[in-house]
């Protein structure tokens, strides 16, 4: 029987899944998560809906559906890392080429996150443009810069588009003014917080660099996960050394990076058992791990509660467990039972995910500037929830259409 020591050799994981072949379960899980993210982000427009669908407040001990979506996405980012890094190694990338790729990708996510966060805090009058226009121009810039232009597009066109996108972002940053509320001063473009994309970028940076230098060795990855868990506990207990303040909080506070590193571990275990063609054993191991994580969540909840906003360890453990369980179910359905086609209608959200995330910004701006107002009965209760889910699916449909005409964001 092959033991986990086989993970000490880089070739062990590389041989588990053929290079270039995608695991349907991860794409489907990512797509489902993105659909739910758009859905819960649209709940602000509704009234008279169940409280458990939304976020809980900072002080509360608990979590709603909305509090489980972002951590699931972080976990899936980690799950994708072993596949992505081993694929690039197979194509001949050296460690330093991988490091540069990771740095560029993380920087792109952080930049996008910070620009969209500034949109949340914009002073429309002082900036000279409404929030929705700011967000739209930012998203257009992101697409111009980070679109994977088809090979049929002339190089001068793609370089020109990227240059235009960069100039647009620089202009927006110069024009930006924020704050100015009661008792507040007008301020310039700044980091209010990192934004969803920025938080993903920092967690990705830490975990991807660890993955590059660990070279598929299991022990360093386990140690890294344990370190992030320890940091999460120290941060929740307010015992984190002052020295750690120089490190961006998505890394130093441990929880977000711990979610991503948990995804890395899950994929490494999956690939280990995949190489052995031991699907039942893999399932039992992942179910056992999910059970242990739930138990850890129950225990640590007694100290710091469950909270997304406070990034507590229990939130880390519970959401990791839920994502593992979802992955196992989807893997058996899609990859083993051959039912991946059941999810084709949301496939673009799993393969062109970043573009799908940006589509609602365009949709909200279009409705505002076109003067479109939905009737009240579409914004209340069950009917409203159906509206928000249909909106999420419409965003996926638009993403698919844009993908077919050559708009695909790839960092």
Key attributes of the depicted protein:
411 residues, mainly alpha, two-stranded antiparallel ribbon, 16 helices, 67% helix
Topology record:
Layout: H1 10-14, H2 24-41, H3 66-90, H4 95-120, H5 124-127, H6 131-146, H7 155-175, E1 178-179, E2 186-187, H8 195-214, H9 218-236, H10 249-252, H11 255-276, H12 279-304, H13 313-336, H14 347-351, H15 353-369, H16 381-404
Antiparallel strand pairs: 1-2
Helix pairs in contact: 2-3, 2-13, 2-15, 2-16, 3-8, 3-11, 3-13, 4-6, 4-8, 6-7, 6-15, 8-9, 8-11, 9-11, 11-12, 11-13, 12-13, 15-16
Would you kindly provide a written description of the structure presented here, covering whatever features stand out?
The protein is an all-alpha fold and 411 residues long. Helix content is 67%, strand content 1%. The chain is built from 16 helices and two strands. A two-stranded antiparallel sheet has the order 1-2. Helix 2 (24-41) packs parallel to helix 15 and helix 3 (66-90) packs parallel to helix 8 (195-214). It is globular, with a radius of gyration of 22 Å. The two termini are 39 Å apart. The relative contact order is 0.17. The model is unreliable at 8-15 (pLDDT under 50).
């Amino acid at each position: 029987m092959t033991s986990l020591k086989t993970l000490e050799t880089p070739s062990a994981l590389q041989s588990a899944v053929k290079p270039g072949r995608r695991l349907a379960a991860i794409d489907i899980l990512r797509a489902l998560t993105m659909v739910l993210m758009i859905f819960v982000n649209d709940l602000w427009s509704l009234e008279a809906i169940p409280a458990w669908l939304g976020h809980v407040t900072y002080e509360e001990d608990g979590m709603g559906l909305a509090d489980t979506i972002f951590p699931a996405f972080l976990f899936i980012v980690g799950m994708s890392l072993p596949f992505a890094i081993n694929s690039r190694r197979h194509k001949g990338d050296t460690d330093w080429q991988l490091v540069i790729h990771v740095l560029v990708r993380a920087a792109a996510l952080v930049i996008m996150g910070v620009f969209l966060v500034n949109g949340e805090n914009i002073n429309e009058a002082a900036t000279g443009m409404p929030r929705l226009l700011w967000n739209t121009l930012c998203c257009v810039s992101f697409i111009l810069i980070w679109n994977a232009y088809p090979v049929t597009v002339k190089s001068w066109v793609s370089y020109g588009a990227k240059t235009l996108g960069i100039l647009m972002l620089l202009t927006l940053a110069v024009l930006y003014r924020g704050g100015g509320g009661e008792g507040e001063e007008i301020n310039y473009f700044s980091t209010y917080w990192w934004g969803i994309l920025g938080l993903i970028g920092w967690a990705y940076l830490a975990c991807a660099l660890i993955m590059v230098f660990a070279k598929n060795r299991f022990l360093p990855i386990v140690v890294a996960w344990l370190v992030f868990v320890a940091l999460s506990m120290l941060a929740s207990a307010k015992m984190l050394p002052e020295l750690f303040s120089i490190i961006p909080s998505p890394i130093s506070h441990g929880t977000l990076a711990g979610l991503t590193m948990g995804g890395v571990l899950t994929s490494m275990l999956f690939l280990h058992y995949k190489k052995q063609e031991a699907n039942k054993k893999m399932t039992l191991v992942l179910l056992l791990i999910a059970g242990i994580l739930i138990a850890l969540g129950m225990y640590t909840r007694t100290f710091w509660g469950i909270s997304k906003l406070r990034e507590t360890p229990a939130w880390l453990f519970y959401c990791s467990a839920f994502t593992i369980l979802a992955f196992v179910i989807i893997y058996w359905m899609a990859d083993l039972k051959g039912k991946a086609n059941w999810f084709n209608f949301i496939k673009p959200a799993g393969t062109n995910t970043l573009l799908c995330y940006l589509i609602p910004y365009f949709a909200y701006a279009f409705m505002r500037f076109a003067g479109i107002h939905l009737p009240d009965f579409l914004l209340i209760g069950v009917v409203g929830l159906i509206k928000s889910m249909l909106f999420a699916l419409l965003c996926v449909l638009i993403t698919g259409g844009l993908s077919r005409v050559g708009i695909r964001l790839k960092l």
